[in-house]
Amino acid sequence: MLESISSFASEYARLLWSVVAISLAIVAFSQQRIRFWVRDFWVTFPLLGDIAQLAKDNTRGNPGWMNAEEKLCAIYKPYIVLLNESKFNERIEYMRKAADLGRTPTPAWVWILLVVLVIAEGLGFSYLLGSWMAREGSANTHTLLMFAIVLVLCVILVALTHTAGHQYYRTSLLRACFKRYKDVAGKEYTSQQLALKDKQSIDDHQPDYIQTANRVAKHSHDKGSYAAGIIAIIAIAFIAVTSTVMRWQNLEGELIRETTQQSQASAGNPFGNLPLPTEISAPQKKADEKAGSEASRATEKEGLTAFAMLAFIFVITQIVGMGAGYKYGFVGRETLEAFKATGGYSTYDAYWARFEPIMDLINARLKDLQQRMEEHSHQKLSLSKTFRDYLVEHQESSHRARAAIDKTPASLPTASASVAPSADSNESTVTVEQAKSTLESLADRQAQQDYFLSLPTGLQNELKPWLKQRKEEEKARLEAEAKAREQAELADLF
Predict the structure, then answer these.
(1) At what angle do helices 32-43 and 348-376 cross, to 10 degrees?
(2) Are 105 and 344 in contact (CB under 8 A)?
(3) How far does CA 101 lie from the centroid of its chain?
(4) What is the tens place of the pLDDT at every residue in 429-448?
(5) C or N terminus of the chain, fewer CB within 10 Å?
């Protein structure tokens, strides 16, 4: 078998290395940090890079901007998605209440380890199975079938065991919440569907296990399932037993073939057929049979022990896969989106510290572009914009665009009806609490006004008392701060 594997590897070495190189390139380029540095390298590339080309463009863009400045900022914008502190904390709160804070997606090295373990363990069994699938085939055919079977087993077993472990963690969490609910409340178990866009403090009054169920359960009575674990255990047991039986039968076949070959060799030996007295030949024959029988039993015991160890290693390998599924991954319905948005950081200071050096680098690139534009220009240019200015203005423009779209949905024709719905029909899609949350999240006053005007008339009337109260509270707070400052100044005088 080893010779067949070596022959296959040497014959298809170039293909194998090409597949490995392409796989590593795909894995590397899937990382946003790698894509950013590759893009930045091309931006600064001499003569042909983006900065070298954009420096020749002196046309005006949006108010206060040159067209080249906006294009350069637009190149970097997909790599910088910043959250304000309130939104960041909302996503952290979602992960905390979903019992996912501190967990991470399955790392790439864990996937690679699981794949290598499954492939290493399954090579021998797959070779036997490949030999039976093409009994008349060549050694290369057997090896190709072996690699195909290993690939199938790797994909199925790694995915199945990882899913089983992850499902076990999720189900255990949900059923722990269910048990606590029944112990405390004693009523019908139910949960509320809370999304990442909702205000995460909306269920602060509820116990922690209800908060977890609100973000993990897929429906109001979801208590999880152990189906994937049961299927995985059955599949693992079946493969372990089947592979052991096949190896045992293959060993017995090898022993029988060896015995037959030895008998044929003895029959062909001219000195082995000499007539000897029974007193001499009988003890020798008995001794030879005993030695052969003992050697066969020892080989069988050794083989059985080895096969049992291989089955044990196979089972342990699958348990490692289940453990990885249990330890990594998220159970919250939208935790993965929250994790990506926060960059995996648990504090806003750490999150901001991640992007600040990158933004400084982008500002340096923009400054380089501005200096080159001034050198190419025949008139004096006042270029002082920064990448932060671009992000702020783009966010404000995005808010205004969303508000304008939300304001005029009734006038847009639809494919399903010739008559557009009235503006009041949107009242059922946006609740008062959601509207309040959105207004509080908008820092720009104009954006708040645009969003308020985009709401249905009935919802506007419901929000007006709250807006008046909020304004009065803000006025009272400012007056209190002013009075405190006056008292502090008066205290300094005396």
Answers:
(1) 20
(2) no
(3) 15
(4) 567 777 787 777 776 677 77
(5) C
